[in-house]
Amino acid sequence: MSITLAIFYLALGFVVLIKSATYLIDSINFVAKVSRVPKFIIGATLVSLITTTPELFISISSTIRDENEFAIANAIGTVIFNTGIILSLVAIFRNSKIDRVNIFEKTAIMVLSIITLTVFSRDYYIEWYEGMIQFILVFIYAYLNSISIIKGNSLNKQNKFNNRQKKITRQILIIIFCALLIFLISAINILSIREIINQIKPSEVIINFMLIIITSLPELSIAIVALLRKHQSIVIGNVLGANIINLTFICGFSGIISHIGLKIMSITYINDLLIFFLLLLILLLPMILNGKIKKKQGYIGISIYILYIIYTLFFVVE
Predict the structure, then answer these.
(1) Domains (ranges, CATH) in the chain?
(2) What's the pLDDT tens digit per position in 9-40?
(3) Which of 196, 180, 190 is nearest to 60 (CA)?
């Protein structure tokens, strides 16, 4: 495959992702209204599971090929992209009131996950038993989400649900189809970017950034469509949910299946984790304290991410 053809597949794939995200967001919005489950919770569960499939693919394939330094670097890099870019876009374009309780709950799990990951990574390796502990945290997240969903369903008993059964069945089928399509396009995108990498042979740092961009496209496409339709709660839920899945399930599972230990790049441990904590303070702390974030915080978040990229590409030698 030529580089030109690979770039064409990437561009076409992004167009298809945007279109798939359009149908997905509309169907999720309908299901949320009928079920009375908050859109934030659906974003943090269903949508985040759909959008993290590329990161899971990259992390597992990298671990199996003994390129496990990319497994955790891609997961954490995607977390930083989600927080620094997508949450910043929410702040700039849709800075309305936010559900503080749910955000605090998800942020607490995310902070716990990043703290345990930081502790486990202090020797630049994650052993299988450390991966197991990280993996277990995802079950706490799933339990808390199940409680929120049950609460929504209990409210739904008063709805005339039977009259909408045919419609909701159709919307669920659309969601399943879109999820499969997003997975397929993401797989093609990953194969295309690997072909480009094989031909231009960039440094490890640049390879990691290329993989992060590709695996973040589903989250970005969902964010673009949802923000245009004023469903920012889905975007915030998706970002927090995807971040937690990356830090717990993907990092943990990669550590479990790695027979030589999950290697951590020094840049990941020193720079990436520091930047992530900084973005948490700027973007998520105001959400918890004030129930919203302001445009200036979004501009600061994007600026920090751009400076982080410039520093990493031009001043870091791995």
Answers:
(1) 43-156+201-315 (1.20.1420.30)
(2) 889 989 999 999 999 999 998 888 887 788 88
(3) 190
